[in-house]
């Protein structure tokens, strides 16, 4: 979040279009934040797109003629597509399309999220964006520091619950 993924995707798609290439963007229909018919940056820039529950139905939705004319396919919110790897492999290797993928590779706990990491080994290039200090996104050190604070607060609150129960012996806290 707030790393500039959509901004980078939008900029790249517009750049590809300016060079005369035929482009389309698809995003997960799970992303309803700004409506289903466009990708939108946090500062309000937008580009029309197709909202799909999966990527395998993209060609049918576009039609064979429309699909054959495509040069570049942008994929927004890629972490929500379970068929991301299969789609990217087929479309790039067999159909000769350029694929530009934008999505999260991890969740807020730093764990793998979705299938974005599955396409990294077959990607021609990878650009990893890091978040700005807005909302919950944070650099690794601040994220780790916040976990320590959260755990300390949890232990403290748990100790208050235990101490308020007359049947449980209070546990001294070591800080």
TrEMBL record:
Listed PANTHER family: THYMIDINE KINASE, THYMIDINE KINASE, CYTOSOLIC
Record-level Gene Ontology MF annotations: ATP binding; metal ion binding; thymidine kinase activity
Protein family per UniProt: Belongs to the thymidine kinase family.
Keyword vocabulary terms for this entry: ATP-binding, DNA synthesis, Kinase, Metal-binding, Nucleotide-binding, Transferase, Zinc
Protein name: Thymidine kinase
Active site (catalytic residues): 77 (proton acceptor)
EC number per UniProt: 2.7.1.21
Classification via Gene3D superfamilies: P-loop containing nucleotide triphosphate hydrolases
Catalytic activity reported: thymidine + ATP = dTMP + ADP + H(+)
Source species of the chain: Papaver somniferum (Opium poppy)
EC category: transferase
One of the GO BP terms on file: DNA biosynthetic process
Pfam families per the UniProt record, alphabetical: TK (PF00265)
